[in-house]
Amino acid sequence: MASTTNEDTNPKLPSWSGEWATFKAYELKVGLEIDGTREDERKLLGPRLAKNLVGKAWELIEEVDRAKLREETGAEYLLAFLKKQRGKIR
User: Residue 84 CB: number of other CB atoms within 10 A?
Assistant: First the structure.
């Protein structure tokens, strides 16, 4: 899977580079994005947030379950999936 670049990201959505020192801030921004997303659009949020990952973070989602990303709770699934990847060598 090719790494996305910052030019490929949506500046209106939270982005994360895979640096664990900044994950808590990313997690908060995602939570706020969930809170601000209309219920009928939440199924789109998980894939949009995943697409907005760059660098090491993009590489971490090679085995993500895309069907779960498309669920209403896809954004929460993405955060949980990323947390499980911590410490894995890529």
Answer: 10
CA distance 22 to 40: 29
pLDDT over 90 (residue 2): no
Q: Considering only CA atoms, which of 11, 30, 21, 6 is closest in space to residue 79?
A: 30
Query: How far is Cα 86 from Cα 65, in angstroms, rounded to an integer?
Result: 17
What tokens were used for 79? Answer: 């955060």
Write down the pTM of the prediction: 0.89
Report helix, strand or coil for 37.
Answer: coil
Single-letter code of the amino acid located at 68: K
Question: What are phi and psi for residue 83, nearest 5 degrees?
Answer: -60, -40
In this structure, which amino acid lies at residue 36?
A: G
